[in-house]
RNA sequence: GCGCCCGUAGCUCAGUCGGAUAGAGCAUCAGAUUCCUAAUCUGGGGGCCACAGGUUCGAUUCCUGUCGGGCGCACCA
């Protein structure tokens, strides 16, 4: 890749200065950067090498820069190297390199942008993990898309990725679910259940579960005590909910590799094992929590509980891993769960809703304690999405059973629009999702804008093919400056993928594609006033074939970017 | 009261482990349609990067404090 080639050139130039005795061999070069300058007028690439290394070299930045430039100008790929400002070195890339970059893109095709930087490192990404008490709704959507796109990104840079879903099937909310299902079971048996009582799940989605239970068990559990059926109904209801969730996720193109059950984890004694390890290191002790300050709790009473010393890791309070009735807290189970994940991966990433921000410290503390700091662990918080319809916020409330489901959204605007839109903001910023906007065919809808660029390219290729002209690399020397500018942008793609993966920020791909599409639309419109700038010139077969070769690969780059977001490119609109 | 996230153009947001004159879209104003998809494009105006200190050759970026907004704060997940 272009970028890596030039990184090597910089390295070579610095090596030469080492040989010349200007800088010492052990000088730290880790702060040396090579990046496209903000202002393209400054060149194609810019390095701060002279400014970063001048102290170690005992020279003024511009003097050191001059020596580096002397080395760089000897390299064929470097069209020019200039000192600017306080000591930047601005480079221009030769058109020969750009042409070979274009050939490289063509050779790699769908593989362009992928790398093996993360090879050998397994990353577990846990996302969605919605409670199995109902269908997927808006509140889950963004985390699902961000997690999935992040998993795609990590795979693109060569990581082995485990996509995981934690099923919270052990808490009291699944008892509530079982009771709600029992009511629907009675209903299926012909009883009049009336209004769903307060505290139970009212949604219709439990009706099929009740019906299935009725046909499986007949009247067996009609009159018996709750203890007779609770476990059976819990299992059946959770299974039903998970089937529903899986099919909702499939609508978004999301498929997890592993579903881990909290109940199974507990049955297998994992929390006990984790507790034993932590107790052996005096990181769990039996103690009493103080009443939190600034908040009045009426029925507060001191209780002795097994506490994890999360304060040793920066948390404000030690955290209980068991409740006073002896059952595990959510945290107690979660800590064991993360320990389990860590046994099969080198790095862990959790995608959480921002409403769980308060629990980040304790779980990070737990992972650090259990893996003795060996497992890298990141929690990515995803902010709320406000649903808008005609500019008016759309309310959703799970309690009333009245909420916008993912199935509704996908049906209304389509999978690709949902996914792309969810990636047009960085995850930790709040965002609005306006039903009208995401399907609008206009410049300010990036989904459309990027797709339109791709469709335009395909349309041009089709039209050219009708005229008997096909893309070809035999006359790339016919390409002009504006066209090489497009290649420069395309050449940034691998770097965007790398940095987006490293920063765990899939939205960067969306912004890049928007920029790339803008560059293409601009270039395309040059042909409006200047027929000689049109891609398709029927009487200029050689030039046209080269231009077609360029836009074909620009289309490929867009396609590859969209694929990283789980969005399919369209060939016509 | 405490913790986490955020504060960038009128609006919605980008801004690469600290870099050059802080960018884009919308809105606004002025233009391009006998032309490969004008569903698009070109240009103008618009900024105390919330505020005040600190670190640095250099701060929108890092640190501290203040103000403003969001989320969360016993055995609920």
Which strands sit side by side, in order, in the main sheet?
A: 7-6-5-11-12
Rg estimate, integer Å: 29 Å
Helical proportion?
40-55%
Oligomeric state of shown chains: single chain
Structural class: alpha/beta
Calculate the mean pLDDT score and round it. 90
Strand portion:
5-15%
Tell me the total number of β-strands: 15
Q: Main beta sheet, described? A: 5 strands, parallel
Shape: globular
| Count of alpha/pi helices | 19
Distance between the termini: 33 Å
Please mark out the parts with pLDDT under 50 across 5 or more consecutive residues, or reply none. 397-401
Q: What can you tell me about this protein's structure?
A:
This protein has 573 residues and is an alpha/beta fold. It contains 19 helices and 15 strands. It has a 5-stranded parallel sheet with strand order 7-6-5-11-12, sandwiched between helices. α5 links the parallel β5 and β6. α1 packs across α3, α6 crosses α7 and α6 packs across α8. It is globular. 39% of the residues are buried. About 1% of the residues have low confidence. It binds one RNA strand of 77 nucleotides through α11, α15, α17 and α18.
